[in-house]
Model the fold of this input.
Amino acid sequence: MIVLGIESSCDETGVALVESGAAPVPRLLAHALHSQVEMHQAYGGVVPELASRDHIRRVLPLARQVLAEAQRGLGEVDVVAYTRGPGLAGALLVGAGVACALGAALGKPVLGVHHLEGHLLSPFLSADPPQFPFIALLVSGGHTQLMQVDGVGDYRMLGETIDDAAGEAFDKSAKLLGLGYPGGPALAKLALQGDPAAFKLPRPLLHSGNLDFSFAGLKTAVLTQVNKLGGELAARRADLAASTEAAIVDVLVKKSMAALERGGATRIVVAGGVGANQRLRAQLDAACAKRGVRVHYPELALCTDNGAMIALAGAMRLQAGVQAATRSYAFDVKPRWPLEEITAAAEVLS
Done:
């Protein structure tokens, strides 16, 4: 079975082909991605209307590129999967509309996929794929969550952010430091030149006894330091960036280790854009090595939003029998869609 996946939830247009069969994990045949970062830089953030219009321009050329690289014809596609949510409503509608139009034209079923489930399962495309069950640290955009994952569609929330997520803390702190968009990668790059112990910043909820996260207070602490430094900020910017990154990573690692200890799990998966952060990977690797725990990450190219994770999630849901594709081409999108709403109950094939 060949699944074509389309991702258009925010500011990246992604298309991919995966093939599932006898192997336990579907195989990635080809993927292509267009990032809108350069377009949105002038505005300091994503402009939803511009994002939607750019998805319209990019999605079909990317689909042709992927089919050509995989040496497959459009008629060989068995299912078209697309991101149904969460994300920007207009951007989601572009991907959903194209996917359902393709499905209708080809007479092939379509499948709406949860964006965060795509991130959650993306490490299965890595050279070192995980095995169920595992603990998942999902750090993507406005989401920071710890989950118990027992199988495809079988997820239990252990803890989540109660205000700003880790990705938002990176981006908002970067803006306070006068760094460009996207802020998270810019802050991480600058932090390599700084001293992570230079500023004493809070580690919110580090000793709360639960697995929830809160990073709004850290952002406020960064603002306070910026104001205190005044004209000295330029000389201390790298140190403040490194201290900010260290505070975020310390919380993520400590909470992840607590989740592993509570559940007695021997594997942890890290997924989402913040999963590409090198300090996070280094500290998590060291902490897991001390406890004899396996840690799995997506390939760096698949940490950010991409079509491969959507095609994979669709294929894995179909392969596990927890959802059926549909030949009903009326579609809707879910800009706000909690991951815990996904259940293992199969949908009726239309």
